[in-house]
Specification:
This protein has 320 residues and is mainly alpha-helical. It has one domain: Up-down Bundle (Rhopdopsin 7-helix transmembrane proteins). The protein contains ten helices and two strands; from the N terminus they run αααααααββααα. The protein has a two-stranded antiparallel ribbon with strand order 1-2. Strand 1 and strand 2 form a beta hairpin. 32% of the residues are buried.
């Protein structure tokens, strides 16, 4: 349903000089994204997991986000090799896994961001009830990955490895369901990966904005400012996610529902498909920087809160 579909299409017909140029250019771009994105996300995983000063729930969420990016970027070598070899060498299991990995990691990312937003909401709006245990966070993470897998399972089950229709002896990954069923499935995924979580996140941040507006005088305190920085970092990651994936989904739904926009020339459609897909991979390349800034701001926030708590205890002790 993305650039991998174009790879399958390119295997079915002989490549013109223009197709070879486009394939080579896209492969080079994807390789660069793979190297940058993997290096950045592995760095985030290393410093987060090996840190001597873990940052509580934020550590769990950042690990989940970086892991989702690593899994998504790991599909690039298979896509590039398919482009260059113009054949599929990874078997039926490869079709099922690789062509559904984007859906799997996409849902894991947005659900993790929703969980992060929910925790920030509880800490600020309902601080007395925001006692979240480590067991609860682990169960939440497990539930996120399980739900993401279940939503992706239909794609895994319906993909098949078939012979090319041109009789060239090459293989191609192809969905076995009807166009109508595939359209309904894509619509459900759009609601579960973009619209549904988006409405929840917007509601949570509107409540947070209202809470900050009501307690505006307290924003001058450094701990509140740091907390606000944490919120802004999380919201920035969410905005970047939407900016990278909304065009992707708009294009997929337009193709599925056969809107008039698809009167574009075949070459233009290929370029557009490549563009929106590269945008989704770019999200995984930009995220490590945002994760690093988020972790730093959150660590400063936690340190400041601990200092304030210790100061308050000392004052009470001296008062006695």
């Amino acid at each position: 349903m993305d650039v991998k579909d174009e790879a399958n299409m390119s295997m079915e017909s002989p490549g013109s000089a223009e197709e070879v140029l486009v394939t080579s250019t896209l492969s080079a771009v994807l390789v660069v994204m793979f190297l940058l994105g993997m290096a950045g996300n592995l760095y985030v995983l290393a410093i987060t997991v090996l840190s001597h000063r873990p940052v509580g729930s934020m550590c769990v969420h950042v690990v989940n986000l970086a892991l989702a990016d690593v899994l998504y970027l790991s599909t690039i070598p298979f896509v590039v090799s398919t482009y260059l070899a113009r054949d599929w060498y990874f078997g039926d299991s490869g079709c099922r896994l690789l062509l559904s990995m984007d859906l799997f990691t996409m849902h894991a990312s947005i659900y993790t961001l929703t969980a992060m937003s929910s925790e920030r909401y509880q800490v600020i709006v309902r601080p007395l009830r925001a006692r979240i245990s480590r067991c609860y966070r682990k169960l939440t993470s497990l539930a996120i990955w399980l739900i993401s897998f279940l939503l992706t399972l239909p794609m895994m089950c319906m993909m098949r490895l078939q012979d090319s229709q041109y009789g060239s002896g090459k293989k191609i990954c192809f969905p076995t369901w009807t166009p109508e069923s595939f359209r309904h499935y894509l619509t459900v995924l759009f609601f579960t990966s973009i619209l549904g979580p988006g409405l929840i996140i917007l509601y949570l941040y509107s409540c947070l904005a209202r809470a900050y507006w009501i307690s505006g005088q307290d924003l001058r305190r450094s701990s509140r400012k740091l907390n606000q920085c944490v919120m802004l970092r999380i919201f920035t990651i969410i905005i970047v996610y939407w900016a990278c994936f909304v065009p992707f989904w708009a294009w997929q739904l337009a193709k599925s529902y056969q809107y008039d926009i698809l009167e574009l020339a075949p070459s233009s459609q290929i370029y557009l498909n490549f563009g929106v897909t590269c945008l989704t991979y770019a999200n995984s390349c930009v995220n490590p920087l945002l994760y690093t800034l988020l972790t730093r701001n959150y660590r400063e926030y936690v340190t400041k809160r601990m200092r304030e708590a210790n100061t308050e205890v000392q004052k009470r002790t001296l008062g006695r």
